[in-house]
Design brief:
Blueprint lengths: L16 H20 L19 E3 L4 E3 L1 H5 L8 E7 L2 E5 H4 L11 E3 L2 E5 L34 H10 L14 H10 L16
Antiparallel strand pairs: 1-2, 1-3, 3-4, 4-6, 5-6
Helix pairs in contact: 1-4
């Protein structure tokens, strides 16, 4: 009878920290790039209802879907993004997208009283000769260049793939070093331990 090996006896390949960071970068870029290549607002063949469009994106399945596909089917418990239209271009809610990627430095726009970010550069942005007031990638005009660097998600993805240092911005992962430092700074330094007790009266 052969004795089973304990977990400590198994040999696993050694993973270098740099390889882990590179793998995370590839996965993040691959997921976002697939999202940016999808087309939306087509009629749903599975639910041919009037004015029913594919304005949802399933992150798990990498596909566009309509509201009925999301509520009844395999997408019910998946990660879903709702797509909106702004100046005839696809946009997504900043609050919703910020749950999955680091949306810092992307110029937001107002659409029906909500902040949205563009999947790809908007047509009304135009190009500018002043580099300081334009998108770092496509040179389109930024509404607030002192606060943001990119006009769309796709421009930030391009900048993300061009960078040579993994520890330098821009970041796509929500567990970026910058955000970790910000969270540590927000935590109080002198945190009282236990419940406070009153001094005894004499």
């Amino acid at each position: 009878m052969s004795s089973s090996k304990s977990p400590s006896q198994h040999h696993f390949p050694m993973i270098v920290q740099g390889e882990v960071e590179l793998d995370q970068k590839e996965k993040a870029a691959e997921w976002v790039e697939a999202f940016l290549q999808r087309s939306f607002f087509d009629c749903c063949s599975d639910h041919p209802i009037r004015r029913n469009e594919k304005n949802r994106y399933c992150i798990n399945c990498d596909m566009s879907a309509c509201q009925y596909c999301i509520t009844s089917g395999i997408h019910r418990h998946h990660k879903i993004l709702k797509i909106y239209r702004h100046v005839y271009k696809d946009v997504v809610s900043l609050a919703a997208m910020d749950r999955y990627i680091d949306c810092a430095a992307i110029q937001p726009y107002k659409c029906n009283k909500r902040l949205v970010i563009a999947l790809n550069p908007l047509p009304h942005c135009g190009t500018m000769s002043n580099v300081d007031a334009s998108c770092y990638v496509c040179n389109r005009r930024l509404a607030e260049p002192h606060l943001y660097r990119y006009c769309s998600i796709s421009c930030k993805v391009i900048a993300f793939e061009r960078k040579s240092n993994e520890l330098s911005p821009p970041f796509l992962s929500i567990q970026s070093p910058t955000k970790d430092k910000e969270k540590q700074a927000e935590q109080p330094k002198n945190k009282r331990k236990g419940n406070p007790r009153r001094a005894p009266f004499f």
